[in-house]
Amino acid sequence: MAIETKQAPFEKTSTKTYSLVEIVRGAPTTMADKGPDHTVFAFPVVAVLELLIALGMSVLLLAIALLKNAPLEELANPLVTTDPAKAPWYFMGLQELLEHMHPTVAGVLIPSIAVLFLIAIPYLDRNRAGAGTWFGAVREKRIVMFTALYALVIMTVYVLVDNAFPVRELLRDVLPALVAQAVVPALIMAIIASIPALVVWRTQKGSVDAREILVALFTMLFVSAIVLTVAGFLFRGPGFKLYLPWDMPNGYNPLNNF
């Protein structure tokens, strides 16, 4: 049983303290012993899963260490430069960007914008409906699929075309160095990255859904990083030129840098 209080239809003054009370059928309003909906206990449910993941990664790293020797070479010779001189695989995306634009843009500006974007996502997406759920909105799965396909194709084309016709080199004697080396390549990259978000925004009906736009931008960032990393790691050979992985000159094997 629950008690419901109703305001009396009398004039409210400081001298009157009465009210009308009646008993009605209904669920208790107390929240005792009732936790949040759609949640699990951090211990042991989440803790056990994290422990299993940590153990699995440890076994995987141990297997790699036993099966693959570290690519250690002789002492560095300052008179001989390794060709190609590659960064670790997790930095290969940034090194690939260095082939297409000014180092300040590729190594500072774009990574800073990417990190700030990831930090700002929770503040830009204020809608709590479907939070923490994969593809919570109706269109999210389609947005991710088409954006990932777009990023896979457009970034591959960008690497190939800019390698054959490097914009920064073609405009070197036409425009000021800052514009040719930094502004134009950064503008091209910004246009490529913003197209999926613009398409999502234009196809929205009614009010703007910030989450759909953020999903498109995040997918573009994630898939582009994968494409650039794979391009730099597997397809860059001596002279940091593009080759097929099985057709590298001078016996170079990109897998030896793994």
Helical residue percent band? 40-55%
Q: Please report the number of helical segments.
A: 7
Instruction: Tell me what portion of residues adopts beta-strand conformation.
Output: under 5%
Alpha carbon gyration radius: 29 Å
Number of strands: 2
Distance between the termini: 68 Å
The pLDDT mean sits at: 84
Give an overview of the whole structure:
By secondary structure, the protein is mainly alpha-helical. The protein is built from 7 helices and 2 strands; from the N terminus they run ββααααααα. α2 packs across α7 and α4 runs parallel beside α7. It is extended. The N and C termini lie far apart (68 Å).
Characteristic key phrases:
4% strand, mainly alpha, extended, 7 helices, 2 strands, 258 residues, two-stranded antiparallel sheet, single chain
